[in-house]
Amino acid sequence: MSDTTFDYVIIGAGTAGCLLANRLSADPKVRVLLLEAGHKDDYHWIHIPVGYLYCIGNPRTDWLFKTEPDAGLNGRALRYPRGKTLGGSSSINGMIYMRGQARDYDQWAALTGDPAWRWDQCLPYFRKHEDHHKGADDLHGAGGEWRVERQRLRWDILDAFAQAAQEAGVPATDDFNRGSNEGVGYFEVNQRSGWRWNTAKAFLRPTCYGRANFEMWTNAHVQSLVVDREGDGALRCTGARVWTGSAVVQVEAEREVILCAGSIGSPQLLQLSGIGPGELLQRHGIPVRHELPGVGENLQDHLQIRAVFKVQGVETLNTLANSWVGKARIGLQYLLTRSGPMSMAPSQLGAFTRSTPDQPWPNVEYHVQPLSLDAFGEPLHSFPAFTASVCNLNPTSRGSVRIRSPRFDEPPAIAPNYLATPEDRQVAADSLRLTRRIVQQPALQKYRPEEWRPGVQYQTDEELARLAGDIATTIFHPVGTTRMGRDDDPMAVLDSRLRVRGVDGLRVVDAGAMPTITSGNTNSPTLMLAEKAAEWIVRDAARSAG
């Protein structure tokens, strides 16, 4: 720790924090400190794609959060993984490259009143850091830090599901990232030659490590922000108090503190610092520095409903991985070719479609896997099977993240409030019917699919919605807990340039800033958001110096 005063202090070396550290430290005159509560990303299972199985639920790489018991899940609580290592959740996630739909960003522009969030204004910032395997075109970039590749495997059972989806009216696609992701095909992934490509590899190594103006502290857990009142009465964030494992060190930011701790960590840290709903803070004995009722509210997530089908006459991972011969074959294939099941993302085949024909746009996403198990982390079933997980892309249910105490090391209460609205329960029931319709198509019948979960005895809307609560789980896409919005929106935490309302020198740049969840996986939209923020931060600094 060479010094404690920097131009920028970035809290959280996850998806957004790594990109911001790279962009801001590109100016050699600017000193940047990147703080990460977790370890370096030197755990070997981070880098082998199937290693997510050993990273989720592992205190070396995961915050080990759990949700509150949820009424929509019939009283169940869920494991809620969030990355706690360099690269953040990009080190433990599903590696799926997905932007969402153009209408998502047009909606952000409408909600914030800022045309900078329109799809056509966001697309250049996706392309800026992209290194797409097909090369550059009007919609994709090449030569950037964020590698996008095809998966290095196929499964007969997944090919059959894709054909069945087409027979049910879902068109084939080879690119989910052109503004409309409707269709069925294999996901593209953030990998390089069969290895996971996380944001620490992409944006920190080797670039930032070679810069004299860049400093990074790992195992550095921020206790609270430092918020002072200036001579004119305005509040300003001037730094942070950091627990290093042996002492509390106060760091100072002469320009900005940039909070990139994610949709769970960022609202928690704001609340611990006296910024948030006044009643909540007072209940825990925290002085209210600035009342912002939206901090920790508006939590949105994708809930996946996992339907399992037994099959016959086709290989699945259940049968392959449940024998020593199969395991040896899997290991040898990866060792020799960096392909096969060890190179697998958690989901390989995707589909975006409408839960019912009257939906105005694709409103559900499938993650289809050639395997089945009772719950994540449990053993694979002994019988051959596949899982067709389907999620509502645009849930209307809203949850919250709220501190339980003034202790920085106590996890917050995470209450997603799944399936809380009639609309979400209806989409859940319709989604299960749609899954059945796809599986009944001719392309899958040679494998004699048999619905094992939830079971064909459940048919009514009420039964299916209740069963969705029994078998559904998070797909790890929390957003919205520090959302941006218009000046006249009392629940907006940030302005449209991601600045915390009423506190100078403080931004939140992570998925919490999203006012509504994107129609797909959320990692790459978070990178785009950070890319735009980096440009605004540099521009604001130049204007101030000016």
TrEMBL record:
Residue ranges constituting the Glucose-methanol-choline oxidoreductase N-terminal domain according to the UniProt record: 83-106, 262-276
Cofactor(s) required, per the database record: FAD
Protein name, entry field: GMC family oxidoreductase N-terminal domain-containing protein
Lineage: Bacteria, Pseudomonadati, Pseudomonadota, Betaproteobacteria, Burkholderiales
Annotated transmembrane regions: none
UniProt cross-references to InterPro entries, sorted A to Z: FAD/NAD-bd_sf (IPR036188), GMC_OxRdtase (IPR012132), GMC_OxRdtase_N (IPR000172), GMC_OxRtase_C (IPR007867)
Gene3D superfamilies in the cross-refs: FAD/NAD(P)-binding domain, Glucose Oxidase, domain 3
Flavoprotein among keywords: yes
Keyword presence, tRNA processing: no
GO molecular function: flavin adenine dinucleotide binding; oxidoreductase activity, acting on CH-OH group of donors
Residues engaged in binding FAD: 222
Protein origin, superkingdom: Bacteria
Keywords of this entry: FAD, Flavoprotein
Protein family: Belongs to the GMC oxidoreductase family.
